[in-house]
Amino acid sequence: MSGEGLPTRKITIDEADLRRLQADVWSNEFAPVKLEMDGVAMDARLRFRGGHTRNYPKKSYEIHYGDNGILHWNAEFDDPSMIRNALSFHFFEMMGLPAPRTQHMWLEWNGYPHGVYLEIESVDRTFFRKRKLGSRALVYAVNDKANFSLIDPDTEGAKESLLDGYRVMHGNVARTEKRLTRFVRGINRLPRRSLKTFLAKRLDVSVYLKWLAGAVLTGNYDGFDQNYALYEHYSTGKYRIIPWDYEGTWGRNCYGRLCGSDLVDVKGYNALTRKVLSYKDCRRAYRKLLKKMLETKFTLNAIEPVIAEMYERLTPAIRDDFTRKWPFRSFEAEPELFRSYIEERRAIIYDTLNAWKD
């Protein structure tokens, strides 16, 4: 196997350290490794990452290296195209919303081929510094309890903590948690008139609507209650949102199963979305945004060239990669599925917009 045309990353790990990681795939413990990247060898640390994918034979990894460098290497084991995450983040950038940068790579592991991976930029201090975005605090939504609600989705009772589902990544932890708790409580308990003022003060509504439109257009059912990053913009103090983990999109779910183009409600999900769209001016802004995307960005003319470029780069390496779950013929067939999804999704959203009068 070879990664023809793709950048190569090399990992050397001691067998004892590898066995320690494999003994508990759900641990977030790191192991020391040697990393060779862009021709430079360095010390690094590596751990398994992901949710249900940790049980897969081809693991995904988080790499820490150098001066606070962090990368995510996704096996994309459930995605026959290997591009759903990359295409989704590219689409968010097309919409004008910051999203992690990606590139496909070839991994070698203790001298042996490990196949094609998607390298994903970490959402961290470096992410904001590169984009000249001020961030007072950053919070990850790590599971589906991060639904902006007072209700636990598992027990259907009150949450033990309004911080359930969230993990503070940077910022003063105590103050960040206190502000986030107040935000979630305010969303759910303030009377309607007070809530609108509260949202205007604490939420960047225009950014939120862009994120909502992106999740709805790409069909990420799993992305409303988790798999996003929330940060407090430094100068305004308002929450802004960044997408994360968009493998289950464009006509397949997070397990790689085919799903209908109507899987995701055009009005989206979660408690915050319902509150925002309860106001007529927000609904109008959201509908206007969706219509603009249907006319400009969410079109075959705009998206198919991106798919073709990714496929041209990937195809030689995918043909040689026998670590994947999917046969090469499945990879070859995916562009037609993307085409069908885009056409069907456009029709669904147009129908909804035409019927959505208030």
TrEMBL record:
<protein>
    <submittedName>
        <fullName>CotH kinase family protein</fullName>
    </submittedName>
</protein>
<dbReference type="InterPro" id="IPR014867">
    <property type="entry name" value="Spore_coat_CotH_CotH2/3/7"/>
</dbReference>
<keyword id="KW-0418">Kinase</keyword>
<dbReference type="Pfam" id="PF08757">
    <property type="entry name" value="CotH"/>
</dbReference>
<dbReference type="GO" id="GO:0016301">
    <property type="term" value="F:kinase activity"/>
</dbReference>
<keyword id="KW-0808">Transferase</keyword>
